[in-house]
Amino acid sequence: EGRARGAADGRLATFLDFSKAFDRVDWNFMFGCMTQVGIPPEFTRWVRLMYMDPVVSIFINGHKAPPIWPNRGVKQGCPLSPLLFVLTIEPLSEMLRAKDGLGIPLPCGYWTCGALFADDVTLFSDNPACLVDQLEIVEAYCAGSGAQLNRDKSKTIVLNNQRPVGGWPGLNLLINLDEVSTLWRDIWTHWYKLPWSLKSRVAPMA
Q: What residue stretches are annotated with the Reverse transcriptase domain (predicted)?
């Protein structure tokens, strides 16, 4: 069972910062994700070959430094790397969605728990207790994937003009909506109250 929730504590948006997100990808976890989503074994073997015993050499002022043998991270400059990274962070999204009651309710009756764009992850929380549950899931994901959450650089804002009560889950309270520009607040308030369906709100504009 999740912790008791209520909007009275203040709904939150938390912007997570992962330390060296692309460089910390665990290869075994990455290959496991490829298998889990049904990527053909032959293609996975080709990707494994790309990551087998890599050696990196750095030239400094024309001199070759001693070789480095990386053991994690996706390859820089490789067109496949962004897709591989997305595969490795998708389990975090699935873990957050799997637990009922996390996130904030939408007028249509659905809940949204966050938004992910590559390594930019935003959590939406109904109150601080909900955020604590979400952060526990994030830490569990980090333990299995090789990711590392940087709590010092992760920031939280309050979405409904209320300061959280009953304790704070350990992230930095950045600002509340009183300190956000009037334009942004007006746009958010107007958009949220429009009598549209969720589909019409997120559908691409013509």
A: 1-173
